[in-house]
Amino acid sequence: MNNQTSNLLDALEEKFKAIDQKTNTHLEGLLWSKPITYWDYIQTDALLNLQTQRTVLPDEMVFVMYHQVNELLFKMILWEIEQLCHSQKPSTEFFTEKLRRISRYFDMLTTSFDIMGDGMEVAQYMKFRNTLTPASGFQSAQYRLIEFSSTDLINLIDYRFRASIDRNTPYSHAFEHLYWQAAGKDYETGKKSFLILEFERKYKEKFLAFMQEYNTINIWQKFKQLPQEDQKNENLVSAMRHYDHTVNITWVMGHLNAARKYIDSGQGSGEATGGSDWKKYMHPKYQRRIFFPELWSEEELKNWGEGL
After folding, report:
1. What is the 3-state secondary structure (H, E, C) of 124-150?
2. Please, how many CA atoms are within 13 Å of residue 241, restricted to the half-sphere of its CB?
3. What is the pTM of this model?
4. CB 151 within 8 A of CB 294
5. Considering all CA atoms of the chain, what is the largest pairwise distance in Å, rounded to the nearest integer?
6. What is the rounded distance in angstroms from the CA atom of residue 220 to the CA atom of residue 222?
7. What's the CA gap between 257 and 24, in Å, rounded?
8. How far apart are CA 270 and CA 192, in angstroms?
9. Does residue 219 contact residue 85 with C-beta atoms inside 8 Å?
10. From CA 226, how far away is CA 231, in angstroms rounded?
11. Per-residue pLDDT tens for 86-118?
12. 59-76 pLDDT, tens digit each
C-alpha cells in the first residue's frame, strides 16, 4: 500500500469515527456500488419527463420548458443568496462574488426573453393561453422569496401604504400591503381574485416564515452590517447597483415587452391569464421596486423606470 492510499484510509477512519460509523462498512458499500453516469447524476430522464402540455399546440411545449428553466435559475439564485445571507461575517470579496453570480443568472433570464418574444407563434399562444387561466407567472413563489431575501420588507410594500408600515408592523399586516397585492385585489371592495387566493393558500405560511427569517439578514441588511469602509468598496457598490437595476428594471421590462407582444397583439382580450392589471403590476415606474434605495441618487430614484 502506497503512502497516498494509507493517508486516504487514515482520513476515512477519522471521518467515520467522528460520526460513530465503521469504516469497513462504508468501504464494503463502495465495493458494491454502481459507477455513476451523467444521466443518473443529473436525473436526466426524470427532468425530461416533467413537461406536460394541456393542448396539442406545439409552441405550448416551448412555453412550459421556458418557465421551468426560469424556475431552475430562480433556485440557483436562492442558493447563492442563502449562502451570502447566512454567512456570519462575509468578506467584501465573498459578498461581491455572490452578487455577481446572482446578477449573471438574472442577466441570463433577461436575455432569454427573446425565446418568449420570438420563439412562439402569436396565434398558437393566444389559443393555448386560454387553457392556462387562471394560472399566472405571478404565482412564482421562488421569485417572491428572492425579493424577501434581497431587501427590507418596506421596499416591497405598495408605495401608497409605506408611511403606515414600519419594522414593528406584524408580518401578516405587511403581507396584505405588498406591492403585488395590487395585481390581485380590488382595493375599493377589498375582494381578492382567485389568482391571489390560491397563491396565498399554497404559500402564505411559507412567505410569512421567510419574511421573518430574512428580516435582519437579507442582502441589504448584510451590506449594512459590513464595516463602513467596506460599504464604500467600489466593486461591491457596483455589484449591488447592477443587481438592483437588473432585477427591478432590466428583467421586469424584458418580461413586460415579451408579454406586450402577445397580450396586446389584437388577437385576444388584452388581459393576463390571471386577470391581473399586468401593465401596472409589471412596469417599474408604477410600483418603484428598489432593493437598495440608499445606493441611488435622488435624481436616479426620481426617474426610476421612466422613459422605458
Report:
1. HHHHHHHHCCCCCHHHCHHHHHHHHHH
2. 15
3. 0.89
4. no
5. 80
6. 5
7. 60
8. 20
9. yes
10. 6
11. 999 999 999 999 999 999 999 999 999 888 888
12. 999 999 999 999 999 999
